[in-house]
From TrEMBL:
Top-level EC class: transferase
Keyword Transferase (UniProt): yes
PANTHER family found in the cross-reference section: SERINE/THREONINE-PROTEIN KINASE NEK, SERINE_THREONINE-PROTEIN KINASE NEK11
Ranges in a coiled coil: none
Protein name as catalogued: non-specific serine/threonine protein kinase
UniProt KW Kinase keyword: yes
Length: 231
């Protein structure tokens, strides 16, 4: 179960405060370890952080597994053309069990995490990478505007965004249709104007802001950069 799964399963999508603090501390230590080994993770987000099953689950008898997580749900296998099943095709298949928990049900002591998915990881001393492949809403601004290759700082950006989402109810950035410009607009509104050399590179900045980085919008429509208009 990922942290994303746990929040999605919960009505309010919140962790208990002490649990959130513990998860964040583990995550920071994990990222620090990677960076100490000269590795940039490259794709930090809630979906790539898993909560470990308690070891005791390996020793549950079948009856206790069913009691805690429900009995297996079967679905009949039926051919679209209505013909009999071929030899070797099972008459029933089973829906995967949900062994997870809602975020607000995870107690302190049950929040041990594993950082996963190293498909975008790289050593910046050996590999020059100029683009980010993580979720569009989490891509650091330097991936778009800097002429320098990505390095450990890009992980710090996604780490900070992930910490916000672990502690909070909603992500820091959540453009409905996250184009590069809409994501940049949210970044500037939340954190402030980009460094001067990056600010000048953003050709569409005046659609959202004046040259001082102040919002230049009519707040007479629904929330979000997608629907707001310039004055």
């Amino acid at each position: 179960m990922s942290l994303f799964d746990a929040k999605e399963a919960s009505t309010f999508g919140l962790f208990r405060p002490k649990v959130a603090q513990s998860i964040i501390a583990q995550l920071i230590r994990g990222v620090a370890f990677l960076h100490g080994e000269h590795i940039v993770h490259g794709d930090l987000h809630l979906g790539n952080i898993l909560v470990q099953f308690p070891k005791v689950i390996d020793h549950f008898p079948t009856s206790e597994l069913y009691e805690r997580f429900g009995e297996p749900e079967s679905e009949a296998v039926i051919r679209v053309d209505g013909k009999p099943l071929s030899n070797g095709v099972p008459a029933n298949v089973y829906v995967p069990a949900w062994f997870g928990a809602r975020s607000d049900d995870i107690a302190l002591g049950e929040e041990r995490i594993i950082l996963t998915d190293f498909g975008e990881s790289f050593n910046p001393h050996e590999t020059l990478r100029f683009s980010s492949k993580t979720l569009p809403l989490l891509q650091p601004p330097e991936a778009r505007f800097s002429d320098e290759p990505l390095s450990f700082a890009s992980d710090i950006w996604t780490l900070a965004c992930t910490i916000w989402e672990i502690f909070g109810l909603r992500p820091l950035f959540e453009a409905f249709y996250p184009t590069a410009d809409r994501v940049t607009a949210e970044q500037v509104e939340a954190i402030g104007i980009l460094p001067p050399e990056w600010w000048k590179k953003w050709s569409r900045r005046l659609e959202w802001f004046n040259e001082e980085g102040e919002l230049d919008l009519k707040p007479d429509v629904s929330r979000g950069h997608d629907s707001m208009r310039r004055t």
